Structure prediction request, 98 residues.
Amino acid sequence: MKTIMTVCGTGLGSSFFVEINIGTLLQKWGLQDKYKTTHGAVFEVSEEDADYFITAKDLEDTLSYLSNLIVLDSIVDMDELEHKLYDKLKADIEETFE
Prediction:
């Protein structure tokens, strides 16, 4: 199972909000059994914590060392989240619908 981690300044507010939205998208795409979600604070994240990381634009430079980093211009824009996450998970999504 792969992991998607949302990251914010404290690991409590915006990262949890985005994590909930990711869960909704994973269910929509039928991937809830292939991916788990978690959230954390910027100061406690390491490359080993997840396969994909999602954060807000203001933390992009701080987290630039992470591979598979998805940066959101707006954490409340569900369309942006869906588009950017879909691009990363495209192969798994298309496999689910075959």
